[in-house]
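Tokens for chain A. Residues wanted.
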């Protein structure tokens, strides 16, 4: 499947898009990730004051735009005025080749309208306290774009993966849309209760630095995928691949594509 079971190599998830090479969560970063050969693009979602889902990691605008304040305090129209690209060039002047001025914060609908079924999406709901409001809106958008629901078939399974640190958000989605693949994120692999997680999710997503080979085997014995974050060094990519990890979140899709061969290599 698209998600990694039975695959010969790890699934590469572009963490916030190709965020090592372009400003995170912009169309430019997603496009670069697609061009670099990512299997999934990751979107972190927040909700605007007028209940639109937008792709941004922080719950404030300050780090990645020229605006400031809480995301939920602004309407989409206000947020669309902001520049989500220029900060990247200022922070990494040598690295950024194109000038990213003019990139805006994308809505979920905008991104999936743009790519349709041509790519796979890895979606994180960032505000557990806003479940079910955000989850319902997410499902509405996915259904409207025919990414889930009546007009989809077995080939569409795995096209959307939902990840969350919060079991309640995942359990809600399992109940509302059982066809979605769900990944339980965690800070520490050792603290993840695999038997429990296997009741409501399809995989685990721990911090890669807390993983060992035994954990990967154990998770697989529970029927769980292992997708870990956030893997940016070549050495770590190669090691995780040799442990049969199913997928990695990375800011550097190009490096992952180059170095990650078949499992066990
Ligand atoms: O999304 C996977 C993992 O990177 C979670 O951390 O903070 O980058 O969304 P964050
Ligand atoms: Mg994330």
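Reply:
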């Amino acid at each position: 499947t698209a998600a990694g079971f039975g695959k010969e190599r790890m699934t590469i998830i572009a963490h916030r898009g190709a965020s090592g090479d372009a400003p995170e969560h912009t169309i430019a970063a997603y496009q670069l990730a697609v061009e670099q050969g990512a299997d999934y693009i990751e979107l972190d979602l927040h909700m605007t004051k007028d209940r639109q889902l937008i792709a941004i990691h922080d719950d404030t605008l300050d780090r990645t735009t020229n605006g400031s304040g809480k995301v939920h305090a602004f309407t989409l129209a206000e947020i669309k005025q902001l520049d989500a690209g220029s900060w990247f060039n200022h922070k990494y002047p040598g690295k950024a080749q194109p000038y990213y001025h003019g990139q805006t914060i994308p809505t979920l609908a905008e991104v999936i309208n743009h790519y349709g079924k041509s790519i796979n999406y890895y979606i994180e709901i960032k505000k557990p306290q806003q479940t079910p409001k955000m989850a319902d809106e997410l499902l509405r958008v996915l259904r409207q774009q025919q990414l889930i629901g009546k007009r989809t078939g077995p080939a569409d399974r795995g096209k959307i993966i939902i990840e969350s640190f919060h079991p309640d958000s995942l359990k809600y989605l399992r109940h509302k849309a059982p066809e979605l693949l769900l990944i339980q994120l965690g800070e520490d692999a050792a603290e993840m209760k695999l038997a429990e997680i296997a009741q409501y999710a399809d995989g685990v997503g721990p911090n890669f630095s807390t993983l060992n080979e035994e954990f990967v085997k154990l998770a697989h014995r529970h029927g769980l995928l292992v997708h870990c974050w956030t893997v940016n060094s070549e050495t770590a990519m190669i090691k995780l691949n040799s442990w049969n990890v199913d997928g990695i979140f990375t800011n550097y899709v190009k490096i992952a594509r180059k170095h990650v061969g078949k499992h066990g290599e």
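Residues 1-6 have pLDDT under 50 and may be disordered. The beta strands are 11-14, 40-47, 53-55, 120-125, 160-164, 181-186, 203-206, 225-228, 247-250.
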